[in-house]
Every structure is written in C-alpha cells, then in structure tokens.
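Possible regression after last week's pipeline update?

I re-ran a chain I had predicted before the update to compare outputs. Posting the input and the new output here so someone can diff against the archived version. Not blocking, just want to make sure nothing changed silently.
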Amino acid sequence: MAAEHHHTCACCTEHRDGLPLSYGAPAPAAWKPRYSRRRDSELTADQCTIKGRHFFVHGLIEIPVRDSGDTFSWGVWVSLSETNFARTHDLWDDPARAQEPPYFGWLSTELSVYPQTTLHLKTHVHTRAVGRRPLIEVEPTDHPLAIEQREGITADRVKDLADLLLRG
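New output (post-update):
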C-alpha cells in the first residue's frame, strides 16, 4: 500500500489527497526583494512591474495528465509588452476580457526540473474569465516543456515531478 500524500494547494489552501497537481513561482526570475522598496516596482499575486520597464503576469501552463484525466499546472510568470500589460490591467475586472486575442510573452520562470532552461521560451498568454489566471501556451518546439504541454504527461511523471520538487 503506497503512502498517502497530503498537501495544501498554494492557490486555494484546500487540503487534498494524492500528489500535488500544481506548483508555482512566487515571482518572475528577474524579481529581487530589494525592488519592493522602489516606487517604480511592484509585485502582487497576479502582476509584477520592475523598474517601470519590465511587466509580467502570473498564469498557468496546463498539462493534461493522460491516464487520470487530471490537469497538471505550472504557475509561471510571463513578460508582456507595456501596451499589453496596460490592457491586461485595464480589463482585469471586465467580463469581456475573455474575448481578448492572446498576447505574446516570454516565459520568465525557471522550471529547474527540465534539462534545458525554460527562461525566455516564447509563449501566448490567453486571458480567461475574471477570477481565472491566464492560460500560458508555450510555443510548440522540441523543448521538453512544450512537448509535455502538447502531448500530456502520465501520472508517473506527476509523481516524478513531485519527487524532484520536494527534494529541492
């Protein structure tokens, strides 16, 4: 009999049985704690500005778990142009935001479980209904993250990811 895994989901603090299906980064890779003292920099749970020049949103790379029907999610940060960031900000509480075309962004989270860096992968940021994080679509390349998003992963891979991440 396998040991039960219990965890608290970082997004909603629900206790769940089984393996974690979501992991996230608290800030973009470029964020430094000292920036929080700057007037032109801000980090919230959803958006980040660095030095008034670099703009990021927090979204989810969703990966189907083929043999369980679950969805595995990476909570990641993606950089946006100033124009698209301003538009995201303006539409934050607008139900019409779900009709927005996707925005281009650079992945700004290092997912160290992959053999190649995930920083600066090209993405499309799909705005969703109010209250839902944007869906981050990684450009379909031969990067292992892109392949996993495209083809899905197995429950065994979810277990391997949990082992890698919990070991640090």
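Follow-up from reviewer: compared with the archived run. The chain has a mean pLDDT of 89. Marking as no regression found.
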